[in-house]
Each structure stands twice: as C-alpha cells, then as structure tokens.
Amino acid sequence: MSEAQEIPIRLASKPSQQLGVSSVSTSPTATFHSPGSFGGALTRTTTGPAQRELKPFDTTDIKILLLENVNQSGRDILLDQGYQVESLKTSLPEDQLIEKIRDVHVIGIRSKTKLNQRVLREAKNLIVVGCFCIGTNQVDLDYAARHGIAVFNSPFANSRSVAELVIAEIITLARQLGDRSMELHNGTWNKVSARCWEIRGKTLGIIGYGHIGSQLSVLAEAMGMSVIYYDVVNLMALGTAKQVATLPELLGEADFVTCHVPELPETKNMIGAAQFEQMKDGSYLINASRGSVIDIPALINASRNGKIAGAALDVYPSEPGGNGDYFTNSLNPWAEDLRSLKNIILTPHIGGSTEEAQRAIGVEVGEALVRYVNSGVTLGAVNMPEVNLRSLTLDERDHARVIYIHRNVPGVLRKVNEILGDHNVDKQITDNKGDVAYLMADISNVQTSEIKEISDSLEALSSRILTRILY
Ligand SMILES: NC(=O)C1=CN([C@@H]2O[C@H](COP(=O)(O)OP(=O)(O)OC[C@H]3O[C@@H](n4cnc5c(N)ncnc54)[C@H](O)[C@@H]3O)[C@@H](O)[C@H]2O)C=CC1
Ligand SMILES: O=C(O)CCC(=O)C(=O)O
C-alpha cells in the first residue's frame, strides 16, 4: 500500500486536488491535536525525494481574510490549499477590522489597511500577515514580531510599474498634457508651446535610489535625461547617473525631483517650504512614495507662487479605503485647493496598479503565506529572522517540525534542547532579529502521543512567544 493510501484523504475545495489532512481539525495556532495521522502526506511528483506536507491542522480550518482586492493569482494559491478565504474589495474601518481579525489565522492587505497595536492586540488567532505590496509601514512590525506574527511583502514586483508611471508623468508635466486634455474635454482648444519642454537633456533628481529609484534611473537615461540621486546609503550608480552628497545639492540641480523613499520618521515632510525654496525656479515635483513625505500645503504655495511649474502626486496623507467620490476637504483639509492647481497630476495611488505587478505580487505573497503556514519557513519575512529548513520527505514518517518563536534572551537553546533531547534532533536552525528569535528543529523518533508533551513543555518556558508543531 502506498503512503498516500495509508492516511486519511479529504477532498479540498477544488475537486481536482486531494490534500492529505489529519482527521481532526484545529487551528494553526494550536500546538497539538488528537492523534489522527502522523503524516499528512500529499503525494507529489518532484525531482528528488518526495516531500512531505506538514499540516497538523485541517487545511479547511485555516481562515484567511483578504482585503483591498488582492489579485486572483494570490487568492487561487490560497484556495488551492483548501483554506477558507474571504476576499473583500476594500479595506475596512478599524472597528469592523477588529471584529473580523479576531477570527482569522492569516490576513492579506495592501497599503490602506492599518494593522496597528489596537488591531493586532485583538488578533488572537493571527499567525501571519501578507502585505500584497512593497510598503509595510501600515503594519506595526515590531509589535507583530513580539507577538509571534510574521509579516511578508513583495519587495519589488511592482517597482517597474511605478518607474514607468513616473516616466509618463515627467513627459506629461513637461508638456502640460493634463491641462490641455482637461481643457479639450471641456470643449476648449488651447494650442500653446510656452513653457512646454522636451525632457531630453533635462536633469532628473531621484530621492531614494532603491528598487524603484534605480529602475527609473535607467529608463530616464534611455530618454536622454541626466540623472542625479540622493540616498542615505552610498549606492552604485547605474549608467552615468551620479550620486550627490546632500538633498539641497540635488534640489538645486534637478529640473524634475522625484521621491522614492519609505515612510519613516526621517522622511516625514522631507519636502517642505525650505526644500521648495531650494528647488530650481520652474522645476517639477513628483511623489509616488508615501503621502507623508511631502508637506502638501507647502506644495500648494510653491505652485501658486510659480516656484514650481507642476507636480504629480500618487499618494496622500489620508487615502480612502475604497473607490468613490472621497477626494474632498473632509479627507484631507487642503484637497480642494490641491485639485484647483494648474499642471498638477493627481492619481489615486496607482503606481503599482498594473496587471503584471498585481499578478506577480499575488503569486509571491500567496506562496510565502502557504510556505509559512504549512512548513514554518520565514524566507522573505520582514519582521522576523529568515529561517529555512529543507522539507521533510515522505520517508521521514515519524518526524515532527518544532517551531518556537521566543524572546531573544540567554539560555533558551539549552532549555529547548533539554525538552527535545529525548528525541533525535535531525536538524535545527535558530536566528534572531532584535528582541525576537525563531527556532526551527526537525526531530525524529516522535510518536504522536508525545507531541502534546513537547508542546506543553515549550509553552511553559518563560521565553515563549509562540509554539507550533507541524507533522
Ligand atoms: N505609489 C505606489 O503605488 C507605490 C509606492 N511605493 C513606495 O515607494 C517606496 C520606495 O520603494 P522601493 O524603491 O521599492 O524601496 P527601497 O527600499 O528599494 O528603496 C528606498 C531607498 O530610499 C533610501 N532612503 C531611506 N531613507 C532615506 C532618506 N531619509 N533620504 C534619502 N534616501 C533614503 C533607502 O536607502 C533606499 O535606497 C516604498 O517604501 C513605498 O512606500 C512602492 C510601490 C508602489
Ligand atoms: O497597490 C497598492 O495597494 C500599494 C502599492 C504600494 O504603495 C506599495 O507597494 O507599497
């Protein structure tokens, strides 16, 4: 009899797929459930030894909440596992979010959903957050880590989309295309060339030369622009771009200034009244990073007094949770002043909103979530050490994978190994990030009846944040 026939098999949500699951259901945060199977095995064809799926829980018990219209590619990966997936198109007001988050093991969000302490404190079953985007500033990463909640994102799948949007905006601003188009939509023919420019030979100043900034640098040079950049880190210049030492130096030289920094205390209002003064007369400002980076009332002044010739904004200090007629003074007190400016492009946070980017993000984050839930691997986590162990194979039947997230204090390893010591520790890896450490060990010669004892002993240690045992 093959191993796949020896274990209980239940149909997953997709009839074509059979998942090996244990006969008793439980939450993924539960560290133990009654003996049912010792190898929730899914027979797969792989090169090399067949890998075991590690799922102590019934996959249909895993509850996932996806907000903000996560791409179908990500939803499919989670549904294929048999997880229960609820998917909403918008983010949720905080009180509704708190109600929903109490129940779920996994939450998937984009940039709008704020997972602050108040929300995370209520998330008693949550083990992992998937940010289906680049930015993770909307999550209290430190609080999450200290409560054993891993956070994953997609660090560069939408970088190219943002860089292309910025290229479009540079030309649109230089040629006043937004205004001309709006005028003609209103029936007005207004053919002008005054203060309309080619971008060839102009200088682009990039603030933040990371994934997006450096991609943009290459595209801008291909269009004949000169590129300078300012970054807090000393970074290799691509092409003939040149790093400048200070922000004022960049602002004084650039015809177009574009921001690609993360939201941090240091980047808040990074471009304010003083910085507009340092910019060249008639230059342009673009921000597709985070709304907190620009002091918008200062931008409104700089536009009205002619210091800048135009601006493009994709992000705002307050953004609505879903689509609709929300861009008013009740959302941001200066919204209507901003809307009335000349040569200003306002887009609703669409920098990463392309089919290509969203599909790729869905796959990347969806797969990271499945890896974490099913086998504890933290590769790509942004708030926990990155820890990986090779998968157990189907031959390794009496093995269990112990995951112990704990406070990073002296003496923990000794105590953990005392607990695991009656078994054969086949592999063990541990790493830490700040105050939090992540230990993963594969142990053999384990009987199902022993798992609860191991789990209880680990849970009793004072260093414990979260224990999971997968088998
Ligand atoms: N509009 C949209 O739809 C999107 C917006 N974003 C935003 O763009 C930001 C940048 O994205 P990536 O390029 O992928 O990030 P990244 O992390 O690859 O690059 C950011 C760069 O900014 C630099 N930096 C940090 N603090 C700085 C400071 N005070 N002064 C100068 N440089 C500083 C860093 O050293 C780094 O090189 C993200 O954090 C996110 O907030 C990202 C994707 C889509
Ligand atoms: O598309 C989104 O929802 C967010 C894009 C973004 O700002 C990011 O990836 O950080």
UniProtKB/TrEMBL annotation:
Stretches for region Disordered: 18-52
Signal peptide feature range: none
One BP annotation, GO: L-serine biosynthetic process
Keywords for this protein: Amino-acid biosynthesis, NAD, Oxidoreductase, Phosphoprotein, Serine biosynthesis
EC numbers, comma separated: 1.1.1.399, 1.1.1.95
Residues covered by the D-isomer specific 2-hydroxyacid dehydrogenase catalytic domain: 64-383
Any GO MF annotation of the entry: phosphoglycerate dehydrogenase activity
Domain annotation D-isomer specific 2-hydroxyacid dehydrogenase NAD-binding: ranges: 168-351
Entry keyword Signal: no
Annotated CDD domains: PGDH_3
Transmembrane segments: none
Compositional bias segments (type: Polar residues): 18-34
Catalysed transformations (reactions): (R)-2-hydroxyglutarate + NAD(+) = 2-oxoglutarate + NADH + H(+); (2R)-3-phosphoglycerate + NAD(+) = 3-phosphooxypyruvate + NADH + H(+)
Pathway recorded for this protein: Amino-acid biosynthesis; L-serine biosynthesis; L-serine from 3-phospho-D-glycerate: step 1/3
Top-level division of the source organism's lineage: Eukaryota
Keyword Acetylation belongs to the record: no
Root EC class: oxidoreductase
Gene3D superfamilies named among the record's database cross-references: 3.30.70.260, NAD(P)-binding Rossmann-like Domain
UniProt record similarity statement: Belongs to the D-isomer specific 2-hydroxyacid dehydrogenase family.
Free-text function comment from the UniProt entry: Catalyzes the reversible oxidation of 3-phospho-D-glycerate to 3-phosphonooxypyruvate, the first step of the phosphorylated L-serine biosynthesis pathway. Also catalyzes the reversible oxidation of 2-hydroxyglutarate to 2-oxoglutarate.
Protein known as: 2-oxoglutarate reductase
Organism: Oidiodendron maius (strain Zn)
Lineage: Eukaryota, Fungi, Dikarya, Ascomycota, Pezizomycotina
